[in-house]
Amino acid sequence: MSIAASNSNANAPTQLLRGARETYAYRRVGGGIRRPLICLQHFTGTLDNWDLAVVDPLASEREVILFDNAGVGRSTGTVPTTVAEMASHTLDFLDALCVTSCDVLGFSLGGMVAQEMATTRPSIVHRMILVGTAPRGGEDIMHLDKPSLAAHLGDPSLKGYAVLQKIFFAPTSSSQAAGAAFIERLGERGEDLDPPSGPNVAAAQMAAFREWERVTATGAADLGRITQPALVVNGVRDEMIPVRNSYRLSEGLPNAMLLVYPDSGHGSLFQFHDSFTRQGAAFLGSDSPFAPF
Amino acid sequence: MSIAASNSNANAPTQLLRGARETYAYRRVGGGIRRPLICLQHFTGTLDNWDLAVVDPLASEREVILFDNAGVGRSTGTVPTTVAEMASHTLDFLDALCVTSCDVLGFSLGGMVAQEMATTRPSIVHRMILVGTAPRGGEDIMHLDKPSLAAHLGDPSLKGYAVLQKIFFAPTSSSQAAGAAFIERLGERGEDLDPPSGPNVAAAQMAAFREWERVTATGAADLGRITQPALVVNGVRDEMIPVRNSYRLSEGLPNAMLLVYPDSGHGSLFQFHDSFTRQGAAFLGSDSPFAPF
């Protein structure tokens, strides 16, 4: 590769990789002797939605790989309407990258993709951090029409990322201040940006949420089969994917540790980025076969 | 003081201190520049029930003070039948010791006493670790007659601490092995032992659980008034005080971080003592006004 390494998502170059079916956009940040950490993004999020306050500290001891799934950002193809198909594309991407074992940070929709990867190809997932996400058959997943979210999504005075500040953070002055700082950090990357996701991305991903919410006969059993160490993280006031979904993950996954942050919503990892990256790095760096670290 | 310092609950001498109403038995372990950590014990537990794998690592950076409440172990007086009265005795003890600010580790019943102390005299409680406990008005608190517990408590083949291994640990081979190791560690202290608690201690403390389980008009409001940073910890399979009580603490306390361990019951802190003391020390050592660390 002729592309220089970067230690920050503020300036890591976006790269393209041809997979079996599609060409995927991705970025590599940092490096180190540990296995890489693949980051799987939230609803409508692109490479540019990864907060450098989360990515950069984690990248100080390992390579962090940010990834646009099919049809998102500059990746080619159609956005899948199931989590299973998103996991399939992620595995195609890792195969093309010749990665046979990695850690996974899955946020929201990305956490569902991570669970699906761990179920369909357990050998490739070493440790998982699942933030603000839900198991299959979870409750109240991304119902943007409910009043607490619709009020902000339908507010014409909120432009651009301002709506993200409202729905990713709790309605307290402290959480909203953390949200404003998050939005400001997102602006630190000035060029080589992904195109923002349009309505077609949102519609397909929303269909995937609805499919994931359905209870299947094997739902609970699948959770019990995921034996990799997992760190489940959430904000106690998450309106988008409520914390009781994280309780269910912690109760159903046989080898998971649960960590819940106060005064925060869906974006708890961005609000408490110092704590999250400290805890996340300690979890990922553990040599134990068990989740507690 | 002529009594030599000890770095382990295996041999720290038991001391007696005259308070306003009673004489209290206690032990001081370790030392350091940080404020002391007061440890408040579980149902029928004495100074000898504090696992040195939990106490000793925490005592490496601070003084850890183990305490027998009124009527327990070698402390004089009658065992109170309310958590409020137990908190009152704990404050008497700290007053006699001239401690005006401390951290508190409250396990099970001790976690309820810690909440009551933080409510009645907020100035004395700096940070709290609440393990395997419940808020006032919590659910299914210490119902020893339910089948999952009664089966062990009524088993004549289980002698001495063997019953503790069954009810403090989950019914998996890994958790039971951790329980056996815990019981073995309790045996490392060979002399200067507290008398075991008798039926009168159990009856009074059980009355306190029943009183604590009652919802009062101000119950939820009291939780919201506890603004000290708190670390709430539980085992996901706690049968004695189920984990949903820890969810309620995390949801109700405005400044609490929740940490739930897999494959463990009421005694999660003993099972995962390496992780618990690492996390606990990091939490107690934080200079932030917020719980996340």
Quickly list its features.
homodimer; 293 residues; eight-stranded mixed sheet
Characterization of the model:
Two copies of one chain form a homodimer. Chain A is an alpha/beta fold and 293 residues long. Chain A has eleven helices and eight strands. Chain A has helices at residues 52-58, 83-96, 109-120, 147-153, 162-168, 173-186, 199-213, 219-225, 244-252, 268-271, 273-285, and strands spanning 15-18, 23-30, 37-40, 63-67, 102-107, 125-131, 230-235, 256-261. The first copy, chain A, has an eight-stranded mixed β-sheet with strand order 1-2-4-3-5-6-7-8, with helices on both faces. In chain A, strand 1 (15-18) and strand 2 (23-30) form a beta hairpin. The longest helix of chain A has 15 residues, at 199-213. Chains A and B meet through helix 9, strand 8 and helix 11 of A and helix 9, strand 8 and helix 11 of B.
Topology:
2 copies of one chain form a homodimer.
Chain A: E1 15-18, E2 23-30, E3 37-40, H1 52-58, E4 63-67, H2 83-96, E5 102-107, H3 109-120, E6 125-131, H4 147-153, H5 162-168, H6 173-186, H7 199-213, H8 219-225, E7 230-235, H9 244-252, E8 256-261, H10 268-271, H11 273-285
Parallel strand pairs in A: 3-4, 3-5, 5-6, 6-7, 7-8
Antiparallel strand pairs in A: 1-2, 2-4
Helix pairs in contact in A: 1-11, 2-3, 5-6
